[in-house]
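Journal club prep — side note

Before the paper discussion, L.F. wants everyone to see what a predicted structure for a comparable chain looks like in token form. Sequence:
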Amino acid sequence: MNSIFISTPTVRSLYAEMIFNDAVLSTCTVFLLEYDNEIFLITNRHNVTGKDNNTNECLSNTCAIPNKIRVYHYANDTLDTHLDHWITYDYELYNNEIPIWIEHPTLKNRADVIAIKISRHENIKYYSYKLNFKSNIRLVPTDKVSVVGFPFGKKSNAFLPIYNSGTLASEIDLGYDGLAIFLIDMRSRPGQSGSPVIFFQNGGTVNLKDGSVSVRTGESLELLGIYSGRISSESDIGMVWHKQIIYEIISSN
């Protein structure tokens, strides 16, 4: 049997369901981040609260609030070229009615990003991102970026994600609406909330911050932030929380 090549970002976006007791309220995307030898599950705050992060209105028409997040992990016996074994793991969201997720130390509920520190289990294989603040790749508005997740809860194969590409719609480091957010021009859909937003290219030329150009072979991959939703239901402009916010959350723990 011929081996199958799997791109690195494919295994780093995980399908998840927001659960109230045994009822599935919604689906979303999560990803794992490794920091200081710990593993964190990263997603949007509105996913775990079940409420719009700006209006505080319930997202479910039943007004049920999730108390668990069910993540579809890769089984540890899975080969990198044959990703067809999965394990579901339910992470409790509350301990004695106290949320277990970590919010931003100063922005608190204003930041639509949370982290959950999780324990490693021998039957789960973890594919995680690491934050890179030393990258010399230069990204400017109109450059291509990708959101890797599960629009409408759909998968490309088994529980593998779907790539959705767009372009940067603002300067990546200057913020939006006074917050560490940058904008992307992309037709996104429900279910992509919590998706990693990445620069991803397989070979070719890459522009560098010093003005030079690098010719590369193989994958160039950089985590840029986490997708949070559109600026308006009538717009294709999406909001991405900068990776700096993720760092400030996990490092505050």
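L.F.'s comment for the group: DSSP finds two helices and 15 strands in the chain. Keep this in mind when we get to the figures.
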